[in-house]
């Protein structure tokens, strides 16, 4: 479904991703794990068209999307749920969720989709009229996910959804990721929380210094010595 072929990208003169290749097949949950500053966010921003690819190519459902502007990438069915959620803090929860439905394909399905999304997040449903900033960190993360789902994406990309959340809420977030995948949306998730992510993912890539250094079935990587020492603290 999504393929990155020898992608190089970065900020200005600084190259962050070096010849990065990876693949996400339809229906999979794929994770990119790595430490601080490894290039996880940069990878998702590059796919989204927010950062220019300087060499290599990105294809989605067989189409070359390497140089498409970000809004056209969204139109193809790729949605990014950004790190730190980036909600409109003074707007209501419902208004924030509605903002997700701007993709053309999502507008016609708005009512049905809203109902489906709110079924997945009962706590959010009870707080639709509250200002987004009045919600707890975990609730705000759920709103960010709900907003992303309103775009009816084919591929949903999560940037560190567990960041800054209490352990119990982290488990709830990963539970939601599992349900989204089960309902047929393909998922690409980047995380520093390697342990939890490998439990929900089918396959994983390990990124260090902007390069993929390892990949395989998530289950297998959990047992790998390098992963256990470097990321699981075992
Ligand atoms: P984290 O988990 O800390 O967010 P990450 O793996 O997502 O890490 P990135 O955010 O992709 O890492 O950052 C990779 C590198 O790119 C880092 O060295 C970072 O300092 C650099 N970087 C990120 N954003 C910018 C920017 N806007 N301008 C210049 N360099 C940047």
From TrEMBL:
Protein name, entry field: ABC transporter ATP-binding protein
Keywords noted in UniProt: Amino-acid transport, ATP-binding, Nucleotide-binding, Transport
SUPFAM superfamilies, alphabetized: P-loop containing nucleoside triphosphate hydrolases
Lineage top rank: taxon: Bacteria
A single GO BP: L-amino acid transport
UniProt family annotation: Belongs to the ABC transporter superfamily.
ABC transporter domain ranges (all copies): 2-234
Pfam families noted in UniProt: ABC_tran
PANTHER family per record: HIGH-AFFINITY BRANCHED-CHAIN AMINO ACID TRANSPORT ATP-BINDING PROTEIN LIVF (PTHR43820)
CDD domains: ABC_TM1139_LivF_branched
Keyword Transcription appears in the UniProt entry: no
GO molecular function, one term: ATP hydrolysis activity
Classification via InterPro entries: AAA+_ATPase (IPR003593), ABC_transporter-like_ATP-bd (IPR003439), ABC_transporter-like_CS (IPR017871), BCAA_Transport_ATP-bd_LivF (IPR052156), P-loop_NTPase (IPR027417)
